[in-house]
Structures are given as structure tokens and as C-alpha cells.
Design goal:
This protein is of the alpha/beta class. The protein is built from 19 helices and 12 strands. Strands 6-9-10-3-11-12 form a 6-stranded mixed sheet. Strands 2-1-4-5 form a 4-stranded antiparallel sheet, with no helix packed on it. A hairpin with a 2-residue loop joins strand 4 and strand 5. The chain is elongated and about 120 Å long. The protein starts with a helix and ends with a helix.
């Protein structure tokens, strides 16, 4: 874990190295200060102190204090630079890692969990890293230096510190052992909270239309309460740290004060040595207190570090093979005994022993009930998932032989719930081809039957689209997504129920444009309406994860029970309306 996180320091390594060096210099000077102060006090107690010597000793003390202040400021500056840079690199590496995740990788973590890891968890690690650079170096170095100096002043009294260190260490161990599992649990609940907020904001129209505000508020309240309860429990455990530390500090002071009084009366210890000894007491015990705070901070951040490391070390499900193929020649597709399970469990297959061949340029319709694995079928073509058994071929080659980027650039998918991003219509369309000319944008939109409504907009193709495309209708959003896919000039075009929000006339016009303008592109159209697929070269009927039948509209209408039921139910519904 530490090795994985350390790789993210990179160009901030110098700042991370300089910080503890400055801290060590500051600690040495702070420890040396009481020693010089004791020397000055003892000199003042001499019968005839010389003013010149007093001023010189005072200047030395001032110089040491000023130098310590400079080193402290430099340490603070470089610690801030190193920790902020480290956090920036962590977020960068995690985000870039997630961009390469397959759908299976994302399913494993969930979107809300990944958001929490990139925000809350990274902030916790940043705070802990800064604390480690400063306090985790300062506290033990100060303690060691002060201990050495205290033994130089009075070795008998110094053993009091040594006796209390095991007590403090044991208390810290017990506190950390009990607190860490709670913090691990808390961050998992944070993921749930993030998920609830995301769901609520994305589905706010549904929430309000069904008057479910109270239900959502109660759900949020329950998860917030869980976080509160767990954090309270963890903080109560950690709260024992301060009383234990204070008990040890005051016990040390009392014991050393009692013995010091005896030594001074006996003449074996000077007043200056007592002052320096009391300073070293505070330095050693304050160092122990800071060290305990650092340990608590590390305990809190440890759970976050484990979660971030889990993302950084995640192995991609999908990888390029050696010498991947860089060109997809045509839109031929062949499924050979393909089975698939999202759980990678052959006893839980959602696609079962599918074999079919689609020739380049064909228009293929897909019909089937909800859960019949139509979407799963098409997601295997651009290798969004890998098959559990069997092989998918594109242009005569196993999809695993292709460079993933090359394959996906040759396969355009338009989903029912495709997303538009905040920006102008032009900017959204150029996701399909960033170098597309304005003429190509218009042509793609004309094919997708989107140009008419765009021309009616105030700024036409420069109209700003809100996040998620909330300022356009569902049908308009789908047509823009189809145009965006067409700009890729793909070998294979997949429409996954992506005309469900457009009227039948527009749907027919889109299909007609496809037939006339992109005849060499393989088109797979998943639809609920028979009218959307009845003109296809062949229609695949899916049922319970398997191919039930394949044929033309006329053949299936004559021979297939499932297709007949869908057709007549829609005809009846249409005539009834």
C-alpha cells in the first residue's frame, strides 16, 4: 500500500524530502535552546556577572530562536506543497485509472464509491501525509534529542520519562486497534450516502412527480445517522488519548519536581539545570502527545489509503493482446457458442450458447422481453465485456485480437439513455469526431432527423446543452446521440432502443436515411416496436438469454409464437387507440 501511494509523489519528492530536513533542524535548535537558557541562568547566579556576557548570551538565544522560526516556516511551506501535490497526483492517477476501467471494473466499485474515494478519501490521505511530513518527524526527533539532552543534564531524573513511554505506547495501541475498524465501516457508509444523493439529484423529477420527498429525506436521514453513530463511537474511542497523555504529563512533572527539589537542596543540581529539565519534560511529553495525534490521524486515513490503493491496484478486465490489430476491415459479425455472466459464474449465465452470423451492411433487428439479454448481446461486440465462454468475431477476427480503441472506434453504440454533456450542440456532436467540419455535423444531424429542431433553436448548432441534456426533450436527445454516433463513420452501428422516445414517422425516416446513406454499415436495431425492425434483413428474437428464432418479418410472423404475440398486441393497441 505505502509503495503504491508513494509512486504518486513524483515531482513533489524534493519538497517531501526537504520538509523533514527543515523539521530536524528546527527540532535541534529548539532542544538546544533550553540548554543555552540554563547556562545563562546559572551565569546570572554567579557573584559578579558581566553585562557584556549577558548580552552576548541573550543574542545567542535570540539567534537560535529566530533560526528555529525560519526552519519552521520553510517546513510548513514545503509540507503544504508536497501534500497538495501528492493529493493532486492521487486524484489524477485514480481518474485516469478509472477511464481505462471496463464496465465490470466499474460495477465492482460503483460510481458513488469512486466519487467518495477521489474526494473524501484523498483529502484524508492529504491531511495525514502533511501530518506525517511534519509531526511524524518532529515529534520523535524532538523526543530523542530532548531525551539525550535531559540525560546530559541529569541522568537519574531522565529515567522517569523512559518509564512512562511504555504506558503511553500501550494506551495508543489499544485506542488504534479499536478505532480503525470503525473508520473502515464509516467510509463504506459514505459510499451509500453519496449514492443516495446522486440518485436523488438524477431522479429529482420522478421524486417530485410521485411526491416522494419525505421518503428520500428519511432515507438520507437514516444513512446520515449511521455515519453520525459510527463517527461518534470512533471519536469516543480516540477521546481517551488526551486524558491518558495528560495523566502521564502531569505525573511526570510532579515526580520530577519532587526529585529536583531534593537535588537542589542537596546541591547536586542548579536552578538553571532545573529550568532546562522542566523544558525538556514539556518537549518530550508534548512530542509524545503530538505523536499520539499523528497516530490517530494515520488511523483515520488508513482506511482511506486502503480504499484508494484498491482502485490504483485494480487489474483491468480488458487488455490488448500482443501486437493488436489496428484496423477493422468490415462490419461482419459472428457469435460462436457465446455465453456470458456478469458475475463470471457459469452457473449464472445471462446469455446462453448464442451462435449467429451477421454480414457486413446488413440491417438486423432484435426483439425480446425485458431481461432477455438484448443489451448484453450487443455490448460484447465492442468488447465492453469479455465473453465467459465462446468467441465474438468482427471482420473475421476474434475481438480480443483488436486494439480496444480501434475496435470501439469502428463500433458506434447509441443507448436508450445516452448522455449529453454540458456544452454546445457542436461540442457534443464532435465526441463522435473531434475534427468533423460544420458540413459533416449538419449531414449527420439530417440523417438522424435532428437538423430541423436544431435550426429552430435560438443559437442553432451553438445552442448550449445543460448537463445531462436536461434542456432538450428525450426524443431530441436520442436523435443528437444518433448523429454523434454517425460522425464516427462506424463499420457497425448499434441502436439499443434508441428511438423509443421518437414518433413512428421520425423513426421511419431515420431508418430510411440509414438504408440510403450508409448501406455498407452493419446496423443492429434493438427495439420494442415491431415497426422499428420489420424492414430489417433479418430479425433476432431473444428469450431468456438465448436466441429463440431468426428470420424476416414475414417468416417470424408466420412461425414464431413470441414474435406473433408482440406483433398482435401492438396491432391491437394501435387500432384501439
Amino acid at each position: 500500500m505505502i509503495r503504491t501511494l508513494a509512486k504518486c509523489i513524483r515531482k513533489y519528492r524534493l519538497a517531501a524530502i526537504l520538509t523533514p530536513i527543515f523539521i530536524l533542524c528546527e527540532s535541534l535548535l529548539e532542544v538546544y535552546l533550553p540548554y543555552r537558557m540554563a547556562d545563562m541562568i546559572d551565569y546570572l547566579n554567579e557573584p559578579e556577572p558581566v553585562m557584556k556576557q549577558i548580552l552576548l548570551k541573550g543574542l545567542v538565544l535570540t539567534g537560535i530562536a529566530f533560526a528555529s522560526l525560519i526552519f519552521s516556516a520553510l517546513a510548513g511551506k514545503y509540507a503544504a506543497v508536497a501534500s497538495a501535490g501528492f493529493a493532486k497526483n492521487l486524484r489524477h492517477d485514480m481518474f485516469y485509472k478509472v477511464q481505462e476501467f471496463s464496465f465490470a471494473n466499474i460495477d465492482k466499485f460503483s460510481a458513488s464509491s469512486l466519487v467518495t474515494r477521489m474526494t473524501t478519501d484523498v483529502t484524508n490521505i492529504q491531511n495525514a501525509f502533511q501530518m506525517i511530513l511534519r509531526m511524524a518527524v518532529r515529534a520523535p526527533s524532538m523526543m530523542i534529542f530532548a531525551m539525550i539532552m535531559s540525560f546530559r543534564v541529569n541522568d537519574a531524573l531522565s529515567w522517569v520519562f523512559v518509564l512512562f513511554i511504555p504506558v503511553i505506547a500501550l494506551a495508543l495501541f489499544i485506542i488504534i486497534k479499536n478505532a480503525h475498524p470503525i473508520f473502515t465501516r464509516v467510509f463504506k457508509i459514505y459510499d451509500k450516502l453519496n449514492n443516495v444523493v446522486q440518485e436523488n439529484l438524477h431522479g429529482i423529477r420522478v421524486v417530485k412527480s410521485f411526491v416522494r420527498e419525505e421518503h428520500e429525506t428519511e432515507k438520507f436521514k437514516n444513512i446520515s445517522q449511521q455515519i453520525y453513530d459510527n463517527f461518534s463511537k470512533a471519536e469516543k474511542t480516540i477521546a481517551y488519548n488526551m486524558p491518558v497523555m495528560q495523566l502521564c504529563i502531569y505525573a511526570c512533572i510532579m515526580i520530577i519536581s519532587w526529585f529536583s527539589a531534593q537535588f537542589i537542596v542537596a546541591g547536586t543540581m542548579t536552578e538553571g539545570e532545573l529550568v532546562s529539565m522542566m523544558s525538556y519534560i514539556m518537549q518530550i511529553l508534548m512530542s509524545l502527545m503530538f505523536l499520539s495525534i499523528v497516530m490517530v490521524m494515520i488511523t483515520i486515513s488508513r482506511a482511506s489509503a486502503e480504499r484508494v490503493t484498491e482502485v490504483l491496484k485494480e487489474e483491468f478486465d480488458l487488455k490488448n493482446g500482443e501486437a493488436p490489430v489496428q484496423e477493422v476491415e468490415n462490419g461482419d459479425i459472428r457469435f460462436e457458442n457465446v455465453s456470458f455472466s456478469y458475475a463470471k459464474d457459469e452457473t449464472k449465465l445471462c446469455l446462453k450458447d448464442v451462435s449467429i452470423e451477421i454480414r457486413s451492411g446488413e440491417t438486423v433487428g432484435m426483439i425480446g422481453g425485458t431481461g432477455s439479454s438484448k443489451s448484453t448481446f450487443v455490448q460484447l461486440i465492442p468488447r465492453l465485456y469479455d465473453t465467459t465462454k465462446g468467441t465474438v468475431y468482427v471482420a473475421g477476427r476474434d475481438v480480443k485480437e483488436y486494439d480496444i480503441e480501434t475496435l470501439r472506434n469502428s463500433v458506434a453504440m447509441v443507448l436508450q439513455k445516452n448522455v449529453l454533456f454540458s456544452g454546445t450542440i457542436k461540442e457534443n456532436l464532435r465526441w463522435g469526431n473531434e475534427n468533423a467540419t460544420d458540413e459533416e455535423l449538419v449531414q449527420a444531424c439530417q440523417l438522424a432527423q435532428a437538423d430541423d429542431f436544431i435550426q429552430r433553436m435560438p443559437d442553432k448548432y451553438d445552442t448550449y446543452i445543460e448537463q445531462g441534456g436536461t434542456n432538450v426533450s428525450g426524443g431530441q436527445r436520442q436523435r443528437l446521440c444518433i448523429a454523434r454516433a454517425l460522425l464516427k463513420k462506424p463499420k457497425i452501428l448499434i441502436l439499443d432502443d434508441s428511438t423509443s422516445a421518437v414518433d413512428t414517422k421520425t423513426d421511419a425516416l431515420i431508418r430510411k436515411a440509414f438504408l440510403e446513406e450508409i448501406p455498407h454499415t452493419t446496423k443492429i436495431i434493438i427495439a420494442q416496436r415491431i415497426s422499428s425492425v420489420q424492414d430489417a434483413d433479418k430479425i433476432i428474437v431473444m428469450d431468456n438469454g438465448a436466441i429463440n428464432a431468426v428470420g424476416t418479418h414475414a417468416q417470424l410472423l408466420k412461425n414464431n409464437r413470441i414474435y406473433q404475440e408482440v406483433y398482435y398486441s401492438q396491432q391491437k393497441g394501435g387500432s384501439h387507440s
